[in-house]
Amino acid sequence: MRLPRRRAGRAAGLGVLALAMINIAAMVSPRNLPLIAEYGWSLIFFVLLAVVMFLVPVSLAIAELATAWPRRGGVYPWVREAFRGRMGFLAVWCDWAENLAWFPTVLAFTAASFAYAFDPTLANDNAFLVVVMLAVFWGATLLAFRGVGATSAVGSIGTILGAIVPAILIIVLGVWYVADGNASQIPFSADALVPDLGLTNLVFLTGAILMFAGMEVAGFHADQARDPARSFPRAILLAAVVMTVFTILGSLALAVVVPQHDISLVGGVMQAFEATYDALGVGWLLKPTAILITIGGVAHMVPWIIGPATGLASVAQAGEAPRSWGRENRAGVPVGVLVAQAIGTTVFCLLFLFVPSVSTSYWILSALTAQIIIIMYALIFAAVLRLRYTRPDVPRPYRIPGGIVGVWITAGVGLAGAAFTFVLGFVPPDQLKTGSPALYVSGILLGIVVLTLPPFLVRRPRRPSTARVAEASAAMGE
Hints:
The protein is mainly α. 67% of the residues lie in helices and 0% in strands. The protein is built from 17 helices and no strands. Helix 3 crosses helix 8 (205-211) and helix 3 (43-68) packs across helix 13 (358-390). The longest helix has 40 residues, at 76-115. The chain starts with 15 loop residues before the first helix and ends with a helix.
């Protein structure tokens, strides 16, 4: 979940379709489908549950906050208005820090897809994956030093070719696979729609929720919308329906083709393409598809390398963090933050060398990403509720429907969903080898502490005027 900077001075004119497409383009990726394909037909229930518990509440909350406080800095100004600077710092820090665990999951998917262009067995070779992951990420970071223009060009073209096209293709191929007379790996029955609500099975709900992280992106363009009170609810509804349908159909297409116990969280998408192409007698398409999806993996990540980093830099420029974090090069890129981000991501990438399987490493990092970003969303839900009481007179072009009762319902459902998801993140799934439960919980807890503690440890730098006053007082012996 990675948030773009608002472009100041742009005339209001975004309609329902434009607002909806901002969210759809930010989230459509085949990468996430294996996370919930493990459910089979019952994934429909879990996706709809994620929509109710997370997607709808966060979209409504972001729409209200973004129209009331449309400022640069991402979630920072919203949470700061409600709970002061330090909590605002924590919110934007979580938005940046979760990338350290999120980037390796995108990189692992990209590296595994790249392996299918040469030798599919390399998709389970930890050493190969790590080498490709580090090469891609450091190359993308060097590209990011050239500024938003360079990364956005790569992101725009790559997203269409490597994300949207393959996402549609996997659904079409799944239908073709079954229509051609091939047996489904998940035979349909009414009982199959009823999920097993056991705790160790519910943990994959975090994967479904993580797929929708980023739905708040359009909220950063709220002040550019035509009649946001009408446009935003419709745009949110349209984007939610499109994402829900794509998620359900794409995941089912993968589950229909690949046996449940064989689905790789990293290479599951390419497994589906390989099995479908072989069954349909067009195996030669596998390598071109692998290259296409590799491009999509890079494109999905590259534009977001700068976004959260600039959000963190804006906090430093506001005086809430060391000023060195806010120093930018000629392209407007916070170099120090990007270097620290690359080093931190490298450390998390190395996890793939020490965990039993590629899928396990992928899941642990996905779970940790969800834990960190859920903290940020919890602060957003709390902020939208508190600000209705502490700042009721601030104009809100879009207001959560239902008055204060509607706000309580939205924030309450969102906070309950966040708390439930946070607790689930500490439960190791039965489907994966994660070692002892105690070791798994300790690892997740340690990751949370390491990634969220800095905002409470970093001392707020003194402003120049304060420093001069202190020096003058010291000189006078006061």
